[in-house]
Design goal:
Keywords: Oxidoreductase
Protein name: Hydroxylase
Largest sheet: 7 strands, mixed
Organism: Saccharothrix yanglingensis
Distance between the termini: 33 Å
Number of helices: 11
Helix content: 40-55%
Pfam family, one: Acyl-CoA_dh_2
Number of strands: 7
Order of helices and strands: HHHHHEEEEEEEHHHHHH
InterPro entries: Acyl-CoA_DH_C, Acyl-CoA_Oxase/DH_mid-dom_sf, AcylCo_DH-like_C, AcylCoA_DH/ox_N_sf, AcylCoA_DH/oxidase_NM_dom_sf
């Protein structure tokens, strides 16, 4: 899909939404339901493969990779829903699911379920969805409620520095009825499979990290090829012969490769545990989140190095380097890859009391 995605990227960013052609291709290829059960037409990928595919899509375009990541991560909810509800929500091959997990909805108990009112932010891909997930607070505690798209109003609020085509607008529902069967709270899975055993909250963190790495890889690619032919203003030799450029490119590649290796090693280890039915302990989950946050931070640094090596031509709108710079930094701002997780890991490692409920 790379040629289509790359060809449409600039237009998608200008329009602040993925082009219909790219969306149709993502849905056709199953990129929006990579973690859904095969019994529902999902791809049911193992986590190491998912990470590699998300990074590859983000290398083509950050917003496209992000959209595939967030929709496919949300599709994993099918493992936690009653079978009849999973069929209702994801039974159609073209059904797309995304939303916002933050518990910002107010749920009032009624016969058979709840009536929900609320407004959420960071609704990546919500305008593309057939079903939308929102976190709500009920008398029994937090839940993820699933709304049909007809109940959702999207507000055009996503005017952001990067990842502009992700359509991460605010959205709301008003007095929408949600039956109990369309309310779920992981980690109580209804099926026994490796994807259902993997820490649910880690899906998004791992996915965001993979997007960051893909964007950084694209930035290195964009500066590496022109370096063989580009001559800076007032210089006589091509960029590839400059010691400074050589050092920056080598440093960028080393940082990117090391961050990717750390992330993939931790994902592979935690996936092996899930396959074996071994629950990940707090230390293992904290280390996985450390790898995610490290990948995001290093990816942002790599894009800065590549942007600097690219010189003056990097600043123009037709340069993918400026888009990579903005996309990587916006992605790295996500709470799931916050540098706070460095602190969490250290506290776990040093036996200092810390809240680990969101690991």
């Amino acid at each position: 899909m790379h040629p289509l995605i790359r060809a449409e990227a600039a237009t998608s960013e200008r329009d602040r939404r993925l082009s219909p052609a790219v969306v149709a291709e993502l849905v056709r290829a199953g990129a929006t339901r990579m973690l859904a059960p095969a019994s529902l037409g999902g791809r049911e990928l193992d986590l190491p493969t998912w990470v590699a595919e998300v990074e590859d899509l983000a290398r083509a375009d950050g917003s496209t990779g992000w959209t595939a990541m967030t929709t496919s991560a949300t599709s994993s909810l099918a493992w936690y829903l009653p079978p009849e509800t999973a069929e209702e929500v994801l039974g159609s091959p073209g059904s797309v699911l995304a939303g916002t997990a933050a518990p910002l909805g107010r749920a009032v108990a009624v016969d058979g379920g709840h009536r929900v009112t609320g407004r959420w932010g960071w609704g990546s891909a919500v305008p593309l969805c057939d079903w939308v997930v929102g976190g709500v607070v009920t008398d029994a505690g937090p839940r993820l409620a699933i709304f049909p798209a007809a109940d959702v109003t999207v507000h055009d609020t996503w005017h952001a520095a990067g990842l502009r085509a992700t359509a991460s607008h605010e959205w709301e529902v008003a007095d929408a009825f949600v039956p109990t069967r369309r309310q779920v709270w992981p980690p109580t899975a209804t099926a026994d499979a490796p994807l259902a055993r993997f820490p649910f909250l880690a899906f998004l963190a791992v996915g965001v990290a993979a997007v960051c790495l893909g964007v950084a890889a694209r930035a290195v690619e964009e500066v590496e090829s022109p370096a063989r032919a580009k001559t800076r203003q007032y210089a006589t030799a091509v960029l590839a012969t400059e010691t400074g450029a050589q050092l920056d490119l080598a440093t960028a590649e080393a940082k990117l490769s090391a961050a990717r290796a750390f992330l993939r090693a931790e994902v592979a280890a935690r996936w092996a545990d899930a396959v074996a039915g071994v629950p990940a302990d707090t230390s293992a989950r904290a280390r996985l989140r450390l790898a995610c946050s490290h990948a995001a931070a290093e990816a942002a640094d790599v894009t800065r190095l590549a942007f600097a090596v690219g010189g003056g031509s990097s600043v123009f709108e037709d340069s993918p380097l400026q888009r990579c710079l903005r996309d990587a930094h916006v992605a790295a701002q996500h709470a799931m890859v916050s540098r706070r997780h460095f602190e969490t890991y250290a506290k776990v490692r040093l036996d200092v009391p810390v809240d680990t409920t969101r690991l």
